[in-house]
Amino acid sequence: MIPALMPNYNRMDLAFDHGEGAWLVAADGRRFLDFGAGIATSSLGHGHPGLTSAIAGQAAKVIHVSNLYRVPEAERLAARLVEASFADSVFFCNSGAEANEALVKAFRRTMADDGKPERYRIICAEGAFHGRTLAMISATGNAKYLAGFGPKVDGFDHVPFNNLNALRAAITPETAGILVEPIQGEGGVRPADADYLRGLRAAADEFSLLLGFDEVQCGMGRTGKLFAHEWAGVMPDAVSTAKGIAGGFPLGALLASELVAKHLVPGSHGTTFGGSPLACAAGNAVLDVVLAPGFLDGVARLGARLRTGLDALVVRHKDVFAEARGRGLMLGLVCAVPNTEVQAACLAEGLLAVAAGENVLRIIPPLVIGDAEIGEALERLDGAARRCKPSALRNAAK
Ligand SMILES: *Cc1c(COP(=O)(O)O)cnc(C)c1O
C-alpha cells in the first residue's frame, strides 16, 4: 500500500528530533554534524536564538495578513536587500522555483511592454537547476525532470555552461534574456568563470537582452558575498534567491533593477503567501546576522580554510576524491567512487552532506559554523574516505 506521505523522495531512514547550531540530534540521541544545512538552506544552523525568537515573536503578533495590506516586515526586508545589493526593488514569494518564475515573467513582460513581445525566450545553461514547476523543469532542461510531464513549456534554450561563444551563437531575435547560476548547485558545484559572467553582461548589452542570475543556492551570503555574482563585479538586471534567505523558513525573492521591476504592475503577478509578516521576520533575523560587520568576510575565511582542508583530503585520498571546487561555504568534492557511497560513509561517521550532479558531494554547512566544526568535519570526511577505499568496498562486497 502507498504510504500516506507521498513517496516522491528517496528519504534516508533517519529522523531528527532537534538541532543545536551545526548539529542535528536524532530521536535515538545520535548527533550529526550538519554540513548539508537542509540543502544550503539552514543558513543560521539550528535553534539560532535570534531567528527562533524573531519567528516566535512575530507568530504571536500576526502570521499572515495577505498582500491586500502593507506589510512593514516585508518593506523593511526589501529595503535592506536593496541597500545591500544591485537591486532597486524586491518581490517576495515562497520558493526558489517561484522566484525564477517571477524572474522569467518579469523579463517577458519587460520585452512585451517595450514593444518586443516576440522576445520571450530565455537562454539557460546545461547542468542548470531552476526548480520543479512546469516552466522551471523546462528552464532546467534535464530530461530526467521532464519525463512524463507532457510537452515542454516553450521558451527556454540551452547552451553549454561557461561557454560564451555558444551562448552568443544561441541569441536570436526571439531572445529576451539569459538565466544562469553563478555557481551551479544541483549540477555539481560548478562555478562560472568571472570572465564568463562579465561576457554575459557584455552580450546582454550588445543585443539588448536582460541578464538574470539564479542565486537561489549560491546567494544570501553562501560564498562570502551577499550574492555570488559580486565576485565577478557584474551588474545583473535581476536575481532570484530563496534557500538561505530566511534560515529554513519558506521565503523566495526576486531582486530586480527598476528597468525590470517597473513592469510588474498591480495585477500582473502575485502570490497569497509571499512576503508574509512571519516569513519576512525570519528573513530580517537572517539579515541581522549575515549583514553584521565582518560576517561575510568570516564566511569567506572559513570557506578558504575548509577548502584548504578539502584539497588536502583530495591529495591524501586520490582514489576517493578527484577534486575540490566551489567558493566560500558552497564547496563540492568530485568523487572518484560513487558519491552516494561517500555520502553513506559520511553518514556512518556522523556527518551530513548532500549529493549533486557530476558525482559531487556538496559541503554546504550553516554559515554560522566556526573553526572547530570545520576541523571536526574534515576529520569525519577523512574517516569516510577510509571507509570508501575501493579495496574496502571490494572487501565489503564479498
Ligand atoms: C533549490 C534551487 C531551486 C528551486 O528552489 P525550490 O525552493 O526548491 O523551488 C532553483 N534554483 C536553484 C539554483 C536551486 O538550488
Automatic annotation (TrEMBL):
Q: Which EC class is the enzyme in?
A: transferase
Q: Which Gene3D superfamilies match?
A: Aspartate Aminotransferase, domain 1 (3.90.1150.10), Type I PLP-dependent aspartate aminotransferase-like (Major domain) (3.40.640.10)
**Modified-residue entries (N6-(pyridoxal phosphate)lysine), positions:** K243
Q: Which Pfam families match?
A: Aminotran_3
Q: Where in the cell is it found?
A: Cytoplasm
Q: In which pathway does it act?
A: Amino-acid biosynthesis; L-arginine biosynthesis; N(2)-acetyl-L-ornithine from L-glutamate: step 4/4
One GO molecular function term of this record is: transaminase activity
Q: CDD domains, alphabetically? A: OAT_like
UniProt keyword annotations, A-Z: Amino-acid biosynthesis, Aminotransferase, Arginine biosynthesis, Cytoplasm, Pyridoxal phosphate, Transferase
From which domain of life does this come?
Answer: Bacteria
Residues annotated to bind N(2)-acetyl-L-ornithine: R132, T271
* Subunit structure of this chain's protein: Homodimer.
Its family remark reads: Belongs to the class-III pyridoxal-phosphate-dependent aminotransferase family. ArgD subfamily.
Q: Per its record, how is this protein called by name?
A: Acetylornithine aminotransferase
Native organism: Acidiphilium iwatense
